Amino acid sequence: MKILVAVKRVVDPNVKVRLRADGSGLDLAAAKMTMNPFDEIAVEEAVRLREAGIASEVVVVSVGPEKATETLRTALAMGADRGLLVRTEATTEPLAVAKALSAVAGEEQPALILLGKQAVDDDCNQTGQMLAAKLGWPQATFASQLTVNGDRATVIREVDGGSQTLALALPAIVTADLRLNEPRYPSLPNIMKAKKKPLEERQPSDYGLVIEERLEVVRLEEPPTRAAGIKVKSVAELVERLKTEAGVLA
Known about the structure:
single chain; ETF_b; two-stranded antiparallel sheet
């Protein structure tokens, strides 16, 4: 069974991003970049399935700029077998990524596609769902547990008030949530081995695609600075402040 895993290069979530002086976007020139954390969990799950003998090959794919090869190499160091970059310098929006992944899936014919539930840079949470719709495959989002048995997958996902168990016929789409696993750190030997693993680069036109930017960012601004909080000594003082200062009580 082949597993396809989609990964995205994003700003390291531990880094404070800065706006360009003219407010036209984020200044990413010197920002530290990394693999989207939810995609990292998806890669880990795919590698575990291969190590368990359930999957035979793990292919990681990214749709983005040339530097996304660094992200793919990280996935290869984690244990993926080969990488594929659909290279574009355009801003990749969920629908364009879903179209590209759909085309790749048509060539690769995976039994399972894993993605992070969302990217931490745009928080769209759309690509997996759009991809499932384009392929006409069953989907399970926000997976916290995944079991594959033959041509079926069982996914446990957290929902309001508890958990939900879904049974999917393969091929299927599964998006990873935080509790699915704990991703491994690539070891130095595996980082060195990853440099020799196959990494193919394709253009969107190879799949008959044109990556269009459908959204226009008009301007970005920092949120207003919040006033510092205060501690009150009693409930009576709290009520008094809510009346006289906050004006939320009559």
